[in-house]
Amino acid sequence: MRDLGVGFGYLVKGQRWVGAHGRWLGFGLLPGLVTLVLYAAALVGLLYGADDLTAWATPFADDWSSPWQGLFRGFLTVLFFALALFLAVITFTAVTLLVGQPFYESLSEAVDRSEGGDVPESGLPLWRELWVSARDSLRILGRVVLYAVLLFALGFIPVIGQTVVPVLGFCVSGFFLCEELTAVAMQRRGIELKQRLPLLRSRRLLTLGFGVPLTLAFLVPFVAVFLMPGAVAGATLMARELTGAGAGSGSGPGDPGSPPTGGTAPAPDRSGPASDVPRDW
Questions:
Q1: pTM
Q2: Long-range contacts: 195-199, Cβ < 8 Å, 24+?
Q3: From CA 270, how far away is CA 281, in angstroms rounded?
């Protein structure tokens, strides 16, 4: 259970890092603001055109009598917009990281540099980095959608569906959000997605301690924009521990990544609150 606090500590320390380096805070806000404007414009356009889109998709209901046509198409319109909003929430981080790839990679390098030791560089051209990020984001999105369908179906189970399933949903979202954020630092270290997932699973509580609180905060879009730079910084600090760059460092919940104390790193905690869920996370 200690790893939960350690993971949250990395999230806090990342926010403190960008707070102490104001230039990087402003630098890292730009991609989130651009993505927020694009998403807001898309959702507003969808809101105005949702009725027409529903009518186009249901020509068989043109001859239905009132009020059944209005009720049916109104229900589909609400469902369609809710689905679009859900997709916007779960893809916001991935799109922001893609838009801000050069920004966040520079931020991650600055965090590595401030912590001392090697500062890995991917050595890939920008177009190649964007391609790898987009490809991995689509793979993660596919996994998230599969889990969403599974959890949606489990939600109809009495009691469990209203208690355990929502908790599992936040855990799954937090795990994959953490994966997307740590990918910035791990890609520079040549660690691909198929290697990152087992690495994060080996410290599942650490990953959830970082990702779940951030997922809850990211439910508020404006909060997501302002937390993104610190989230990338904190994920870089966590990636250093996971990859051994910060081995031997004290990693208490209040001060992850503090100077070496001579102790050995704790053994990976392979337990987790949802160990019976499929092993993608």
A1: 0.72
A2: 197/280, 197/281, 199/242, 199/243
A3: 11
